[in-house]
Amino acid sequence: MVVELFLDLRSQPCRALFIFAKKNNIPFEFKHVELLKGQHLSEEFGKVNVLKKVPALKDGAFTLAESTAILLYLSRKYNTPDHWYPSDTQKRARVDEYLSWHHTNIRSNAGKALWIKVLIPLFTGQTLPPEKLQEVMDELAISLKQFEEKFLQDKPFIVGSEISLADLMAIVELMQPIGVGCDIFEDRPKLSEWRNRVEEAVGKELFQEAHELILNIKELSNIQIDPQLKEHLAPVLRKMMK
């Protein structure tokens, strides 16, 4: 029995899991959970993940939430190449260090451009002033500077000469603003070169397959949003629009 992965490739962590599983030839059944149709809020999906978020994993009777936990579970279960999550204590600590920092920095900031330029107008019919986007991009610029100086430095990848889970989690987040025309790699040669190396390491065709939806995110303008999802997100949207 293969594992089931519940994913929506518009979600950054879902793309990380998709790339990791495909790149490592992990057999899995892709269970598409369309977030914009509110499928993650269904009672059926709640049996897989009571948190009602993607990604989620089901392996027989075992279920698991949270992208990092799922990545580590898959890496151990399928004994993936060591470079993804090194056995060397200090290299592994570097992956852990980045993943700990990632959530309140790169992940916290990189996705906001998508909300401001596409999702908030889609959900509310209102556009936000350009100053709001600039504020978000300024916050992201601080995180990117820290990413380059602290984590990337002069190395090909975050941990050294080979790609790791840290690079994978970082790149999927940083592709989010690209989809709405905010090219964060422009005028950042070190970051741009790192992106190219990551793409080469996972394979350009797989990279494009994983990011096809996000790179065409503007096509969402005509989609019908699930009313339950609108109600569910209303408090979050009001906070972001302030």
Automatic annotation (TrEMBL):
Domain GST N-terminal: residue ranges: 1-82
Protein EC: 2.5.1.18
Subcellular location: Cytoplasm
Pfam families tied to this protein: GST_C (PF00043), GST_N (PF02798)
A single Gene Ontology CC term: cytoplasm
Family annotation (CDD domains): GST_C_Theta, GST_N_Theta
Keywords (A to Z) from UniProt: Cytoplasm, Transferase
A GO term for molecular function: glutathione transferase activity
A biological-process GO annotation: glutathione metabolic process
PROSITE patterns according to UniProt: GST_CTER, GST_NTER
Residue ranges of every copy of the GST C-terminal domain listed in the record: 88-229
Main localization category: cytoplasm
Catalytic reaction annotation: RX + glutathione = an S-substituted glutathione + a halide anion + H(+)
Similarity comment text for this entry: Belongs to the GST superfamily. Theta family.
Subunit structure: Homodimer.
Protein name: glutathione transferase
Organism name: Terrapene triunguis (Three-toed box turtle)
